[in-house]
Structures are given as structure tokens and as C-alpha cells.
């Protein structure tokens, strides 16, 4: 008569290891999703600031007063530089 071998039930350490692996996988997915969402936010933020800068340039271009034009254009350039610096720094953190 052949004897049947029963498979050993998983030990507590096997169960703990499997649970830890699942938690790691979930954490990796959460981190990846967060990075994607962060990049989408940064893209929108950068586009918004560039739109504001474009508006500031238009105000400066339409002004009949030279000092208003100069200030509006300087403010537009500052806004663009701020957008570039902020988004570049934030993107380097997300990598």
C-alpha cells in the first residue's frame, strides 16, 4: 500500500514572508502612482505659470507707458524662471 505524503502547512515565517512581499508590491505601486501624479501636477503647474507669464507679457506689450512695459516684462521673465526652477527641483526629487 502506497503511503500518501501530506504537504506541510505553511509555517508562520512563510506566511509572514508572503505578506511582506505583498506589502512591498503594494508600496511600489503606490510610489509609482504617486510619482506619476506628481509629474502631472508639475506639468499643470508649469503650464499655468507660463500662461500667467504670457499674460504679463501681453499687458506689457499693450501698455502705452514704458515703465509699465518694463515691469510687466520683468515680472513675466521672473515667473518663467520661477516655474522652471521649481519644477526642475521637484522633478529631481520625484525620480
What features would you describe in this structure?
By secondary structure, the chain is an all-alpha fold. The chain has a domain at 32-94. Helices cover 84% and strands 0% of the residues. The protein is built from 2 helices and no strands. It has helices at residues 12-62, 66-94. Helix 1 runs antiparallel to helix 2. It starts with 11 loop residues before the first helix and ends with a helix.
- Measured between the Cα atoms of the first and last residue, the distance is 63 Å
Helix/strand structural class: mainly alpha
Instruction: Report on the biggest sheet.
Output: none
Output the radius of gyration: 28 Å
Q: Tell me the fraction of residues in β-strands, as a range.
A: under 5%
Instruction: Give the overall shape.
Output: rod-shaped
Unreliable stretches, pLDDT < 50, 5 or more residues?
none
DSSP E strands, number: 0
Number of H/I helices: 2
Average pLDDT rating: 89
Helices and strands, in order, run as HH
Q: How much helical structure, as a percent, in the residues?
A: over 70%
Task: Tell me the layout of helices and strands.
Blueprint lengths: L11 H51 L3 H29 L1
Helix pairs in contact: 1-2
Amino acid at each position: 500500500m502506497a503511503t500518501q505524503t501530506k504537504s506541510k502547512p505553511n509555517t508562520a515565517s512563510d506566511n509572514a514572508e508572503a505578506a511582506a512581499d505583498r506589502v512591498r508590491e503594494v508600496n511600489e505601486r503606490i510610489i509609482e502612482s504617486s510619482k506619476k501624479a506628481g509629474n502631472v501636477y508639475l506639468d499643470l503647474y508649469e503650464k499655468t505659470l507660463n500662461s500667467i507669464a504670457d499674460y504679463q507679457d501681453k499687458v506689457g506689450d499693450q501698455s502705452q507707458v514704458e515703465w509699465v512695459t518694463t515691469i510687466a516684462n520683468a515680472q513675466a521673465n521672473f515667473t518663467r524662471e520661477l516655474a522652471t526652477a521649481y519644477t526642475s527641483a521637484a522633478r529631481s526629487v520625484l525620480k
